[in-house]
Amino acid sequence: MTDLLPLIVAKYNYWLYVILMMIGLYAMIAKNNLIKKVVGMNIFQTAIILFYLSIGYKKDATLPIVEVGHEGQEAVVRALDYINPLPHVLMLTAIVVSVATFGVAMALAVRIYQRYQTLEEDELRMRLSEE
Amino acid sequence: METIISIKPLLAVLVSLLVIPVLVSSSDKPNVRESWTFIAGIIKFLIVLSMLPAVLQGKQIVLTLFKIAPGADIAFRVDALGMLFALVASSLYIITSMYSIGYMRGLKEHGQTRFACFFALAISATIGAAFSANLLTLYLFYEVLSLATYPLVAHHQDAKSKRAGRRYLIFILGTSIGLVLPAMLYCYHATGTLEFASGGIFTGQLSKPAATVLLLMFVFGFAKSGLMPFHSWLPAAMVAPTPVSALLHAVAVVKVGVFSIIRVITGIFGVHFLLSFNLGALVAGIASVTIIISSCIALTQDEFKRRLAYSTIGQLSYIVLGVALLTPKGMTGGMLHIAMHAFGKITLFFCAGAIFVATGKKYISQMVGIGKRMPVTMMAFLIGSMSIIGLPPTGGFISKWYLVLGTLEGDQMILLFVLLSSSLLNAAYFMPVFYKAFFCTEEESMFEDKIEEAPMMCVIPLVITALISFALFFVPQPFLNLAQLAVKGILGG
Amino acid sequence: MDNYPVLIVVTPLLAALFAGLAAWIEERLSYPIALIGLAISTFSAFKVLMRVIASGTIQYRMAGWAPPIGIEYRIDLLNAMVLMLVSSVAFLNLIASYKSVEQETNDRAASFYTVYLLFVVGLLGVTATGDLFNLYVLIEITSLTSYAMVALGDRDRAPLASLNYIFIGVIGASFYLLGVGYLYMQTGSLNMADVSRILQSHQGSSIVLTAFILCMIGLWIKMAFFPLHVWLPNAYSYSPVAFSRVVAPLMTKVMIYIMIRLMITVFGYDYIFKTLHLSSAVVWLATIAILAGAIMALAQKNLKKMLTYIIICEIGYMVGGAWMGNQLGMTGAILHILNDALMTFAMFLAVGNIVYKIKDVDLSNLTGLFGKMPWTMAGLVLAAFSIIGVPPTCGFFSKWYLILAAFEKGAYQFAAALIISSLICAVLFFRVFEICFFNTDSKDHEHGNGHPQIKIEEAPVSMLIISGLVSLSLIVVGLFSGTIVNTIILPFLK
Asked: How far apart are CA B24 and CA B116, in angstroms?
């Protein structure tokens, strides 16, 4: 146990994303209401986005915008001074994907509600087995 | 050994396959359809026949079609044994086609086009199996044959044929997928080839227990051979129209099963390999048990076709027994019996069908006095049954003679006893039928004293096959030479 | 250097755009646009396949950026084969679909074609790309479109089936994304070849192990590997038949392709089979998957549902073969990608024809079909034989390699599972054939031999031709499987 605490503290970003992921997963599995499940799904995806963002981060580094132009004096760019921009860029795409998925899921939820007048899964199951 | 590359084996297989679209397109013109069936059958027979001289000179005709994996192509090779079988099947196909016209029209059966198509497919697969150069090709045609026969067995499309078809599939497909396929793949895994070789393909890769298991998987896996306990599909399949029972369940399908077993024993395991482990005796034992039990069951059957079916099961085991003796004479006898039994048994089935068409009777107990009504048919029946029992002057005598010599050669007195006692049993279940048909009092007779045979198309074929059975006693040369050549190739190679 | 590799993916994408726009002007325009787009794509895929067979791997740089910075399409023998397969199946299905779309989703035909094209773009892109993150995005494009397509199906049940599909699909894709994140942490690259090169020196790293496991779990969910399969049967069987015909053969197979790609190209044989010792465990899982899929299929009363469980069973074949860790197994798995796609396609084409005529394909509704739809049933029979594994249909030959691989590795349980599943498939399909073949109507029996002439009511010719062609291709591909293995698979594995 004594070793575990420093481990958690040192890599708290990973622990956070794992906890967030688990919350999302829990909601998707255990919740009865379809909207809550959709929200859980979104939390799940966001956790991964946070994970990516955190792996690009460096201490005491700044945004990767090089202030000096190509023909300037200080042409040497020290990578340590800048955070890694690539994961952030990737996450732009991932966010688009997650928004799109969220949209489709919500649209489907609306359709289900229109058809069955409920979003509770157990009621839906009952209705389906009746038919 | 000299080999000739020729496209003829492929043509022989393809002829009846290519005729199927023609049959379908002429489905509303029965006469046109039937003449196409005939033309295809005759062309097929002629192609097979044209290869006979070369084979008799000891040459082999080969053709590789598709390369699948090293040592396992889809390829044809015509050797003496394959030739013998193909000759029997293709000649009887023509006669059966004639017979089935008489039978199917006589009974006004439905779905005659479907029937003719699947029949053509089945005979294609049979010839393909006969000409297979390796186990993969043989397995391929074996499976095609199983599936092509299903609609024929279930032709009547009623509850009874449904049950029969189901049983047929469970036994035939279940064993070929469940037993032969893994056994075949294991052989390929162990040796890297599936090519039939005269000395077998194993060179010390197998221990005795492994070889025993593998051999049993093959022998039972080719369930078309009707070895007990995988025999019960055959009596069940008798619900099919009689031409199917005649050609397929006396000649093509069952003989493909036996033929496959012969190929596996001689081409995959090899005679010397089996002798060294004394495994021939195991197969011979299974065959003997089947012979005796099936003959006893045949005695109790009243339905004519079922009795014939059990008789077939016994006779097939003769062939297996002969080959499992692993002696030259025994193997010759076994292979010869493929031909002799085919002509004899098809005659008997034709008789059963002719009686059904003419009188609607299926049971032996209802056939008292039928000799007076259908004398030609019943005389043919006499010749056919004599051939099956093995009495001279019929072809069956010659093959049994060689089988008996084979048992003496191998010094297998128990097997000799099996053969002889089974012949007595054969006589016991066939002769009463003949006796009751002719020798009965006026009161016992169930038929009017008036000659009324089945349609000509039914009678002519059975007369032809009966005459051939008779003639084979005097002229067994083509088949005998082929069988001896095959045995020489196997043992001398 | 010509642009065929990118044309494969871009033409359907552009066609999707135009098909969507054209629908504003005239609804009927979208179908020919889609057709042209996929035809060009198929043609390009064919060109690329020939090129790759003749002169080896093609590397195509998107917009001229060199990897590892730019996105690269790297097309070797394996992708070239899968690309050809995907584009031609999608193209043929589009031809066959005109009538069934008209019947099932008439009011939304234009949007159907647009989404259909996007779905195909996703699959093609996934297959062509050599970039791990690009792969994720394209997987999500395929998944999103398939969620939408499933929802277009059965009005009562499809939305719920689709929503459940989304939940599980998102979990699968997210696991894969996480895996890619870990790989990026370790290697700092997303290009497959580059990652593979850097990984050589990180074989023992626990980060790589985490990445590998996460990627695999993600893909297994996506490919419906038992017990992660629960989403598949409902999603596939309630979707419109024009879509199930393309998703059933392609989606899972493309996921298998990605798994094989990651195993061979990214992580490498040595890492998976020498450093990790997971092979036998996964082969056992595959064995269970095969048996479970087959047994669950036995319990189904609806033809479409039954087939979806057979897909789950077939997934076990391919996963097991790929994880066997020998060349035969991988050969079998890759060959089965092709064969299984074709036979599932042939099967669903036939089912599509039946659905076109009788709406509900519950097994009990199928009586007398051999008389009513002889050509369709001929196609169905051939496809069924291929699934059972009857030679000379192609299903037999992939089984041949898989069983040999199992013997070589000593994984006899896997060989036994393959054979048992063949037997169960035989039972399944002959049960269907019996229903279609025999007269269960008791009235007919009272008339003795009276078999009434059943009137032939076949599906439209366009559907029949495609169905017949694909079914015949099963035999052709089977007979030429030796050629396929020797020109495509073995050179790829060397």
From this structure: 9
* CB-CB neighbors (< 8 A) of A107 in chain C: 151
Residue C160, both tokens: 């719920």
pLDDT for A70 equals 58
Range of the domain at A122: 4-60+80-130
Pairing of strands C72-75, B60-69: unpaired
The reported pLDDT for the residue numbered A68 is 63
Is A75 part of any domain? no
Contact C482 B162 (CB under 8 A): no
Helix (H) or strand (E) holding B455: none
Q: What does the domain layout of chain C look like in residue ranges?
A: 278-494
- C-alpha to C-alpha distance for B1 and B196, rounded to whole angstroms: 14
Nearest to A31 by CA among A100, A104, A122: A122
The rounded distance, in Å, linking the Cα atoms of B155 and B114 is 9
Closest CA to C97 of C462, C485, C477, C474: C462
Q: From first to last of its 493 residues, what are the pLDDT tens digits of chain B?
A: 678 888 888 888 888 888 888 888 887 787 888 888 888 888 988 998 888 888 888 888 888 888 888 888 888 888 888 888 998 888 888 888 888 887 777 777 777 888 888 888 888 999 999 999 889 999 999 999 988 888 888 887 777 888 888 888 888 888 999 999 999 999 898 888 888 888 788 877 788 888 888 888 998 889 888 888 888 888 888 888 888 888 777 788 888 999 999 989 888 888 888 888 888 888 888 888 998 888 888 888 888 888 888 888 888 888 998 888 888 888 888 888 888 888 888 888 888 888 888 887 888 877 777 777 788 888 888 888 888 888 888 888 888 888 888 888 888 888 888 888 888 888 888 888 888 777 777 667 777 767 777 777 788 888 888 888 888 888 888 888 888 888 888 887 5
Helix (H, G, I), strand (E, B) or coil at B493: coil
> Which neighbouring-strand residues pair with B5?
B62
DSSP state of A68: S
Q: Which two tokens stand for residue B360?
A: 């609607």
What is the ipTM for the molecules in this complex?
Answer: 0.89
Across the interface, whether the CB atoms of A112 and C157 are under 8 A apart is answered no
Contact A124 C160 (CB under 8 A): yes
Q: Do chains A and B touch (3 or more CB pairs under 8 A)?
A: no
Select from B440, B443, B349 the least CA-distant residue to B388. B349
> Helices (DSSP H) in B301-327: which residue ranges?
304-324
Residue spans of the domains in chain B: they are: 1-271, 279-493
Query: Is residue C412 within 8 angstroms of chain B, CB to CB?
Result: no
Is the distance from CB of C320 to CB of C283 less than 8 angstroms? Answer: yes
- Minimal Cβ distance to C163: which of A52, A55, A109: A109
User: Which residue of A105, A115, A131 is in closest CB contact with C166?
Assistant: A105
Phi, psi for B394 (deg, rounded to 5) = -130, 165
User: Do residue C480 and residue B166 have CB atoms under 8 angstroms apart?
Assistant: no
C368 part of contact set with chain B, CB < 8 Å: no
CB of C69 within 8 Å of any CB in chain A? Answer: no
Of all residues in chain B, the one with the smallest CA distance to C419 is B178
Q: Give the model confidence (pLDDT) of B280-299 as tens digits.
A: 888 888 888 998 888 888 88
The closest of C138, C117, C89 to C258, measured between CA atoms, is C138
**Cβ C439–B157 below 8 Å, yes or no?**
yes
By DSSP bridging, strand C58-61 and strand B3-5 are unpaired
Q: What is the CATH number of the domain that holds A103?
A: 1.10.287.3510
Indicate whether A113 belongs to any domain. yes
Q: Are A63 and A82 in contact (CB under 8 A)?
A: yes
The model's pLDDT over C25-73, given as tens digits with 9 standing for 90+, comes to 888 888 889 999 999 999 999 999 999 988 888 888 877 777 777 888 8
Amino acid at B234: L
Q: Contact C485/C331 with Cβ under 8 angstroms?
A: yes
Q: How many domains does chain A have?
A: 1
